[in-house]
């Protein structure tokens, strides 16, 4: 089991400087496809690597990406589609907002404590702390793998 959230991470409002925007698809049919937002599905050769490294890495290693998705997001994928979409959307907004809970809350039109609670729930489900850089990287790559699998499904 991975460590739970310590000081920093989503609770500090800025530890996750990584961005997870972008590629992968959100077409129905793949695991977790619901609620990922409309995104264009791109093949690895269609991506500009300097803008989308996580997506390029995921698309370039589909077997490893599927394994990572199952390992990191397995419990998340077992949730009801609406609940899964809520947590994935919150993670996506938090990442797009540079790890700012306040900006993510404004984007999601909810209270910042709601964002904190959703991120904590995501951390418990994935056994990954968003305040630990290596675990954050795994989470971001799993998010890209989820998008990629949704686009292929």
Describe this structure in words.
- There is one protein chain.
- With 153 residues, the protein is mainly α.
- Helix content is 57%, strand content 0%.
- It is built from 7 helices and no strands.
- Helix 2 packs across helix 7 (133-152) and helix 5 crosses helix 6 (112-126).
- Residues 1-8 and 12-44 have low confidence and may be disordered.
What key attributes describe this structure?
7 helices
- Overall mean pLDDT stands at 76
Strand fraction band?
Answer: under 5%
Number of helices: 7
Main beta sheet strand tally, sense and closure? none
Radius of gyration, rounded?
14 Å
Layout of strands and helices, then pairs:
Blueprint: H1 9-12, H2 53-60, H3 62-77, H4 81-96, H5 101-108, H6 112-126, H7 133-152
Helix pairs in contact: 2-7, 3-7, 4-5, 4-6, 5-6
């Amino acid at each position: 089991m991975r460590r739970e959230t310590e000081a920093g991470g989503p609770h500090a409002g800025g530890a996750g400087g990584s961005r997870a925007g972008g590629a992968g698809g959100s077409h129905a049919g793949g695991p977790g496809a619901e609620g990922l937002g409309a995104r264009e599905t791109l093949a690895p050769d269609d991506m500009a690597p300097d803008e989308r490294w996580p997506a390029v890495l995921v698309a370039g290693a589909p077997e490893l990406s599927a394994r990572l998705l199952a390992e990191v997001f397995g419990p998340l994928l077992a949730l009801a589609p609406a609940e899964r979409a809520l947590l994935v959307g919150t993670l996506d907004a938090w990442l797009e907002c540079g790890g700012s809970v306040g900006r993510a809350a404004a984007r999601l039109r909810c209270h910042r404590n709601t964002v904190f609670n959703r991120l904590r729930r995501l951390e418990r489900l994935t056994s990954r702390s968003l305040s630990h850089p290596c675990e954050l990287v795994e989470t971001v790559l799993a998010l890209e793998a989820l998008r990629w699998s949704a686009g292929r499904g």
